[in-house]
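Subgroup meeting minutes
Present: P.N., E.W., G.H.
Scribe: E.W.

1. P.N. recapped why we're keeping a running log of single-chain structure predictions: easier to compare across weeks, and new members can see raw inputs and outputs side by side.
2. G.H. added today's entry (193 aa).
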Amino acid sequence: MSIFRFGHAEYSINFFLASSLMFLSTCCCISAFASPYWTKRYQDTPKDFQNIGLWELCLYKYRHYKDDLQIPYTGCFWFWTNEMYRFRDWIIPSWFKWVQAFATLGLIFTIMTISSLIVAVFSSFRWQWRYQLLVCIMSFVICVLFAGEIQFLREYTEDYIDEMYHHKDFPYSLPNGSHLQLTEGHGRLSRSH
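Output recorded in log:
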């Protein structure tokens, strides 16, 4: 088994391989945690369901039978908003709540593990500025990649929000900033009139 030096410490190839796989699994866990595309609708299914993620549901003119108001929901909704409480238990079954809990725990533990690996590997470089600069650059690149992924995933929704809110006939006021909370209100007046 070959050993390589990194700073003032010696590491085996297995440690390097395990650390690389842990870094890759952390990136995958973060992207899965943030992605709203866990399931997407099939082409031959009704268009009211668009896609679902771990924390968000995207609908198009969806009316739920348990909703007393029979409002057609259009847009992406966080599961825990007030608009979703009427049929939250139908959309989020108990097994899916367990998936959310274990995905959250998995994300926490992978971030803690990768942080421990970084501290263990780079502790031998404590006073060497070039390695600290390397860690800072790697952290910056990771943050930029994560922000780029979030921006890419939200791009369609943001354009849709702008179109709806800048339309002069849209009868509703802006939401409180939580998420897209739109209904098809054509032909109805807002409550403020």
